Amino acid sequence: MNLNQVTVSSRNLKKAVAFYKQLGLKLIVDALPRYARFLCPDGDATFSIHLNESMQNNDNTTIYFEDDNLESLVIQLQQKGITFTSQPEDKSWLWKEAKLLDPDGNQIILFKAGNNRIHPPWRID
């Protein structure tokens, strides 16, 4: 498994995007006012922000882990007693995702995106 992307909530994406660009992240998906994704300056990890006007303390962070053998990984984890809130399914953004929660209720998404993670057809230059 590889830690790939962290998504955080924001009440104001315009301000958040300006801040993270100032930190040196490269904006690669601009879907304001609801979503923005950045490429980290080193490596190929990505970081994103989504609009959440009613942010609550327990639902602001989503952690993504990519695995090329997603279906096998889900089966292995289920055999260890891990409960999933959704099974692997194809998404409109060209990823396959399965969802679960950590003990504190933070959402974790195990996924397979391949080249579409950093180079989706709608990527901006």
UniProtKB/TrEMBL annotation:
Residues 2-113 form the VOC domain. InterPro entries: Glyas_Bleomycin-R_OHBP_Dase, Glyas_Fos-R_dOase_dom, VOC_core. It comes from the Bacteria. This is VOC family protein. It comes from Olleya sediminilitoris. The lineage of its organism: Bacteria, Pseudomonadati, Bacteroidota, Flavobacteriia, Flavobacteriales.
